[in-house]
Amino acid sequence: MGQDTRDNAELDRKLRHYRLSRDEHRRIVGLIGREPQGVEWALFSALWSEHCSYKSSRVHLKGLFNQSPRVLQSFGENAGVVDLGEGERVAFKMESHNHPSFIEPYQGAATGVGGILRDIFTMGARPIALADYLCFGRPEAKRMEKLVDGVVRGIGGYGNCVGVPTITGQTEFDESYDKNILVNAMAVGLFRPGEKVFLSKASGVGNLVVYAGAKTGRDGVHGASMASESFDKESEKKRPTVQIGDPFFEKLLIESSLEVMEQDLVVAIQDMGAAGLTSSSFEMAAKGGVGFTLHLDRVPLRDATLEPEDILLSESQERMLMVVEPSKLERLQALYHRWGLDAVAIGEVTKDRVMRLYWKGDLLTSIDPDLLVEHPPRYERAYESWKPKHRITDGPVLMASGLKVGEELLKLLGSAEGASREFIYRQYDGHVGASTAADCRESVGVVRLKDSGRGLGVVLGCRPYLMRFDALEGGRDTVAYPSLELAAKGFEPLAMTDCLNFGNPERLEVMTSFVAALGGMNELARELVAPIISGNVSFYNETEGRNITPTPSTGLVGLRRSVEELPTSNFTQAGHEVFVVSTSKIFEFGGAFAEKTKLEPRAMGAIDRDSVKSLVTSLLAVEAGGFIQASRVVGKFGLGYALSRMALGGVGAEVNGHSFAELFSERLYEVVIATSLSREDFEKQWATASGGSAPIRYLGRTGGSILKIGSDVELTVQELTTVYHRGWVQSFPNLAVNV
Amino acid sequence: MAKSIGKSVVGVIRFPGTNCDRDVFEAVSKLGGEPRWLWHGDLFDHKEYSALILPGGFSYGDYLRSGALAARATAMKSVREAAVYGTPILGICNGFQILCEARLLPGALSRNQGLRFIDEWVELKVVGGLSRFGQNAKVQTASGLRIPIAHADGRYTVSVDEANRLEDRGQVWLRYKVNPNGSVADIAGVTNEAGNVSGLMPHPERALETWMGSSDGRALLDLWS
To answer: β-strands A291-295, A355-359: how paired?
Structure first.
């Protein structure tokens, strides 16, 4: 073997270890003018990972609608910030923890919650709400019951302990997640009037770089690059790269860090998340246009045998990096000590834009942080323009024969996809904070803002079965559907975050769906003036060559004048008139029912942004008058299922007869409303509010303990309830709700 | 002598990991009391306080056992003095666990029967005549109180004999209508023999207004009936 071949083999080994490509190696050499040495390999590996650099998505994210007069902070910071007026502002963001949760569900999910909380309180906002978007495989898939159990326990174990209420969520089941589950956590934090927003931009030559929180251990080393790879049969061996969370420590870190910020003791602050100390320090310096001198041997260690490279890449949880004026160090340390935590100066801010990393006095590297943070490769992955499939010009979109409406409704309520999620949300503290006005039992989670008394609504979006049917319409729906859910309860949609979970971007069909979905999402965000102010991309959700359903989950926040008299999601009183209001233009397809029962896929029309906007506006106007007592956006499984769910509160209804297709297909968008007004009065109110832009149809009246749909369906509320709860237990026999 | 809550200074004790502290602080304030912070690491003069509350949460992360480490905190020395002195002391959820671990209340709170955390609205009955707390609730709400629970270790546990003795002496003051966690005799709250130290698992501070889902919690935080 010649020297060249040996060198090549050695280089390949190194590149594999650091998960870098040959092209990327050439780019590094070009940028620094020499071969990378020592820890530099680790730095490039971490900061150029897909997870940290967004190298496959950045060209598409650039065009996202992310501004409105309310937006105070958008991409580029730990989280986005929106102005609510009256001095109140919220920070929020959603992030994925998919790979770790599949490898080790409890810790993976728990640290997902911990990580997203740190992004929020790092900015000086107190976390006030959590939401979780979960996608699991089929209940019978290998390990699935354990994965569901572990993820739910992990989320609860962390969120409950830190004392942030989980107020909403969404859980989906599909075969495409059998070997790659999705765990996306969203956190919302509040700045009360007078509270300052803290950013991560380092400044002030001579200021100290201070490390606070938990000691550094070996956990999570290479986590960022692990999360940027596809899965294979060896994934099990990646367990040591999963971080371990300590919610008690996080709670102390929240309280102490918020106090530190309240007393204005820090100049800049960032949590150590993916790629730990490396990403936090390099990003803070790059943003500020300064350099840092860092003494890695001063980093508090849990394991004294850690090498500099481990210290740089460790993703040990519950750690913060801050820039602090020297004169304030003592007060800052005293405050952290009071909470039982350490704060140590590990370096200082320098004028030249160079990161100098030292280990016991030896200089390991001196490198321009911009090269790593601002100059990762940008890939323009191949994709095609979106082509709608399965379109017909004349209905019906659902061709079912010989099926009985009542029986099918019960089957849906009793299926994993349609059954109760009580098992899940019962394990989450939904009321700590004493501000929760609507919890996971409702379609929109609501917390009361203490100072103004207004309501903040939080809701998640993305329907995987629609994404599988059509990624463009599915992308539009990730904004339209949750916006309508908010509006139907009287919440004006303000802004959103997203978590773009996709497969391998190097595959044409994955990138094609990514571009289509993002385009749809962006179009509706712009139309509804719900700017996308933060988010996360999770590629490589691919296991053994199989990619997940494209799943761009979203989290929206909305604002309501108060938390009094919120419309419920169930019928609550007899004698209310029931209507369906809808968009003037409709996208109609066979929906989740057609997919589940393997009927021929058919669709007509398209989601029309103007008519979605009109429906949102009309709902807000009518709700403001106090005329909506109960509401539900017709979603998965169509109108029949929506009515069944509304009857689960104990009050039934009698509504007009409908064809099978009308009850089980999905018409985007329809909203069921129950009102205490008379039929005539409500129709008048609706006509005034909508100006004729959103059709209304009378359905019937609430009352009794039976759901009656024409002459086809007569189901007792008791039966619906029993089946709805039994559906979960039948899907997951070992995960019962009972004591 | 009955005191009005308006004149009452209420000490709210914070342990590391307490997470209902601010909720309780605001609740006391909302009901007209004067809440004051007390720190786990400091002794305090109990005579300056008309009542004390140990709020819920996860003191010390529930490590070792729920409440076990907090029960040994410095501030608990002052709490013991207050208990002997006769100061009304209320422990909510983790606060109840701490009072049991400190042996200021009988029994123990073990893992829920289903071995999972439970967040749920429950119906409660105020019973027994001994507890200083909830006296008004008995009169006001013969139909029961609707208040949420949120705990993993809420299964009240004592021997059958001890449960009977507690019953006879009127030390059981709060009972679940439907037992959510396997507690002995559906017990949701107990008091000491003097009636001034009481604990309960449900969270009255989360049920103060209609928009919260219920305002029944007010009747339990009416500390000086």
So the answer is: parallel
